[in-house]
Amino acid sequence: MAAAGLGPARLFLGRRRGAMRALLGLARGLASGPQTHFGFQNVSEEERREKIYQVFENVAEKYDVMNDSMTLGIHRVWKDILVHKMNPSPGTLLVDVAGGTGDIAFRFINYVHSIRERQLQQKLKRHQNLSWQEISKSYEEEKVKPLGDSQVVVCDINKEMLKVGKQRAQHLGYSEGLSWVLGNAEELPFDDDKFDVYTIAFGIRNVTRIDLALQEAYRVLKPGGRFLCLEFSHVSNPLLSRLYDLYSFQVIPVLGEIIAGDWKSYQYLVESIRRFPPQADGRT
What we know:
GO biological process, one term: methylation
Structural class: alpha/beta
Distance between the termini: 7 Å
Number of domains: 1
Protein name: 2-methoxy-6-polyprenyl-1,4-benzoquinol methylase, mitochondrial
Subcellular location: Mitochondrion inner membrane
Helix content: 40-55%
Low-confidence stretches: none
GO molecular function: 2-methoxy-6-polyprenyl-1,4-benzoquinol methyltransferase activity
Shape: globular
Mean pLDDT: 84
Strand order of the largest sheet: 1-2-9-8-5-6-7
Organism: Anser cygnoides (Swan goose)
CATH superfamily: Vaccinia Virus protein VP39
């Protein structure tokens, strides 16, 4: 499993073949037992699940606006990097877990569609003597199946987050090859060996039993399938770390109150980042 640095975010990449130890290495020491934490509070596992569900139910409508505000739009760059690292080809089956509002799914669709467009242009260049009827037929086929056989399934445990994602998809014109599933990362509602790629962006620290989520990731991936996890991480430089903490604890909750009317949810966000293990703990 490789780990790529993206400033205060971290991207973990791994393959299913022989990678069970690597995936579970990310969760080493995180199997919480009856007691766990919600930010800096000690709570039961069930209470944590309920509180986190409430957080995302509360912030769903403003989730994307807050991401832009908190990161000054840099989260878009991080997500672009994730999809470029994925480098999906036409025919790729992706499950995006905790992907409620669709950011990764939409990028995946755009990426695959651009590849299909390039392939069509290359085909036409190779066959410059094609008739207008044949050229028209090629473009019509592209319109019917712009993603080829590629599909992305957005899976999220929170109904409100999925609702926002579906609304965004409708507004932006995404429908082909896209589906939405209500499901728990710890117990995914999918068959074994189903997907080529599993992604989870800024979601794994909100999973109560990360060890179970990673076992599920391994189960639903095909042999040789890829696991990509994008998450906030600790800043190693002492000076930058102090500035990062100052911004996180003094500014982000205030932004949450001003933009989303919710101080507590964003206080949890920064506390959850602080409590999440450093990136080195995910390496093997």
